[in-house]
Amino acid sequence: GRVVSATFERGMNAFKEVLDAPIASFFSSCVHCGLCAEACLFYTETNDPKYTPIRKLEPLRRAWQQEYTLLGRLAKLVGLAKPVTDAELAEWSPLVYDSCTLCGRCSMVCPVGNDIAYMVRKMREGMTAAGHAPEGLVTATTRAIQSGSPAGVKWATVEATIRRVQKEFGFEVPVNRENADYLVLMSSWEILNFPEYLGAVGRILNQAGATWTLAQDAYEATNSGIQIGASELARELVGRIVGAAERLKAKCVISPECGHAYTAIRWEGPNLMGRPFGFEVKHILEVLDDLRKAGKLKLKGTVDKPLTYHDPCQISRRGGVYEQPRTLLNQLAPQFREMHETGTMNWCCGGGGGVSANERAESLRLTSFKRKKAQIEELGVKTMVTACANCRVVMEEALEHYHMDIEMLGLTELVAEHLDEGKPNE
How far is CA 176 from the centre of its chain? Predict the structure, then answer.
């Protein structure tokens, strides 16, 4: 009908808009070597060639070829090129949204340096405009715009967490405080599933003698606009944080234990806003490391069991926060063991990039977890630490599915549990 063709038209226009210089150069330099397939856990765990990362971009590649290359334009003109259709985009939606977590591992192995994760993000922009984004992600994004959080977490829920933290630890959780050293953000998962995160951050910053605050109008760090591929929504969500940080004159915004939140605020944020920020943005792990270097993170005791660390893709591979967690873990856990393939070449949990919010992808997500499962079994540890609440939830579900008795911990809480709070900071 006319409606479909109108949205399809919008999608194709969005494709044309996103076909920027990097994408043109990526497509023209792809040597069809297939190395990206071996780097993708959706391919390695299914052996299905359709999950080859570069193949997920086929409709975008054809749009580029037919619009911007001489041979492609000629072929289109004489009817030899097959134009992209709406039915084809519908068919491609599961490849772009269900079998890609934007983890960027494929980009690491591409011999010509193509950033395939960037291209998938751009392709999602066209897919969203054409009406082919999965329902779960559309709902989450709508909720984020309306209520401030993709999970519909309202300020009242945050207040309940604040009351619990204040009662348990006996310190005040500052709200809307001006001129603080740090504006603390949380992701929906931390508010709903891991309320201990706020208590941990508060204890750590208080011990360090730092000032901090929450903002009533910008407490949520998750950015579903980035995950779904809708830049204007991503801009609105980042804009809330920027507005609050600048209004409260915070020196630094702390991105919580959440991978895509970090990408959205730290790396994409200034581009989305079209200007540099008047404050710093750091991941909580970077802040912990800063405090450690300054001698303001006093720890006591160690964890007396073998454990390993799962690198969240957006934090280590795409964000460069790789050494900081290891420095802390080496101090806290004498039996810390590295997985085979870790750090920048870490394997994804299988749920990033909006995949965990996409019900349609569930069985594929669990299949892809076999890669992580093999890594854990190879080490033989019973405890795994990470620094992303989404990784944690995704892996807890998968570990239960595979009947694996593995304890999942957040690194920030682990640090807080070992604070030496004997004498207050001078």
Answer: 26
Distance from C-alpha of 291 to C-alpha of 288, rounded to nearest angstrom: 5
Number of Cβ atoms within 10 Å of the Cβ of 175: 14
Residues 202-224 pLDDT 10s:
999 999 999 999 999 999 998 88
Tokens of 340: 């085979």
Distance from C-alpha of 343 to C-alpha of 242, rounded to nearest angstrom: 30
Residue 155: CB atoms within 10 Å: 17
Reference 83, options 15, 7, 1, 4; nearest CA is: 15
pLDDT digits (tens, 9 = 90+) for 114-130: 999 999 999 999 899 88
Tokens of 70: 């001489």
210 residue type, one letter: A
Residue pair 200/416 in contact by the 8 Å Cβ criterion: yes
From residue 53, alpha-carbon distances to 208, 224, 225, 285 in Å are 45, 22, 22, 30
**Residue-wise pLDDT tens digits, 166-200:** 999 999 999 999 999 999 999 988 998 898 999 99
Tell me: the pLDDT tens digits for 343-373? Answer: 999 999 999 999 998 999 999 999 999 999 9
Q: At what angle do helices 116-129 and 21-29 cross, to 10 degrees?
A: 120
CB 373 within 8 A of CB 406: no
